[in-house]
Amino acid sequence: NNILEIQDLHARIEDKELLHGLNLQIGAGQTHVIMGPNGAGKSTLGSTIMGDPRFEITSGSIRFDGEEIAGEPADKIARKGLFISFQNPIEVPGITLSNFIRTAMENRTGKHIRLWDFKKDLTKTMEILEMDPSYADRDLNVGFSGGEKKKAEILQLLMLKPSLAILDETDSGLDVDAVRIVSKGIEEYKNSVGGALMIITHATRILEALEVNATHVLVNGQIVANGDASMVDEINANGFEKYLPKEA
Ligand code: ADP
Ligand code: MG
Ligand code: MG
């Protein structure tokens, strides 16, 4: 069964259409890679699935865990178990990393989470990600380095336990140690949560430890090719040229 089923999705920002009839299926617990040239619409796809109100869905359907989510508000979609890690995580002054995650978990489960239990769980998870415990009490992403922001995203992933996580270039611009730790966190998510992954990436390092079930090529707001794990290496060797529209 599919955790995500997108059919003929058209989405626009103001009067500019960015997704032109996109189709994509991701099986429950599977790991899929999305590749595509800059400006193809990869981040737009992630934001549209997550209910970002800047993107208007004009037609098509997005089914998540069997339910239509197109047009639903972002907080409702997150509660259903969808998670996205953005290319550029936003800084939120006045809310600590710890409080942000606890509130998100409470919204997700609809239950009060005892502070003591939460702190224990958070500390243990931060250890996996080699994060200094003091980061829990710092304002969300404020003054964090690029690597620290990405670790904070993976921390949310491990604490929230979504059934589908979209990672938008989570590995871009990170040094080798940060990539190693982020990869370790993603592996931990696969092993302990068993959720599905949609990984938008140009690199291969974070895929090394994962079993990739499928690769999709996104060009000009559409999925133009689908393949297996070997497609990642094929594209890195040969580029996107053969997937681009032919000049008239
Ligand atoms: P990718 O992530 O594949 O590099 P994006 O989804 O960020 O591509 O962008 C796809 C296209 O949509 C680009 O042409 C970009 O300029 C345009 N776009 C993205 N966000 C906006 C926005 N907020 N306003 C106008 N155009 C946008
Ligand atoms: Mg890009
Ligand atoms: Mg992008």
From TrEMBL:
Domain ABC transporter: 4-245
CDD domains the record matches: ABC_FeS_Assembly (cd03217)
SUPFAM superfamilies: P-loop containing nucleoside triphosphate hydrolases
One example GO MF annotation: ATP hydrolysis activity
Keywords in alphabetical order: ATP-binding, Nucleotide-binding
Family classification: Belongs to the ABC transporter superfamily. Ycf16 family.
UniProt name for this protein: FeS assembly ATPase SufC
Organism from which the protein derives: Shuttleworthella satelles DSM 14600
Organism phylogeny: Bacteria, Bacillati, Bacillota, Clostridia, Lachnospirales
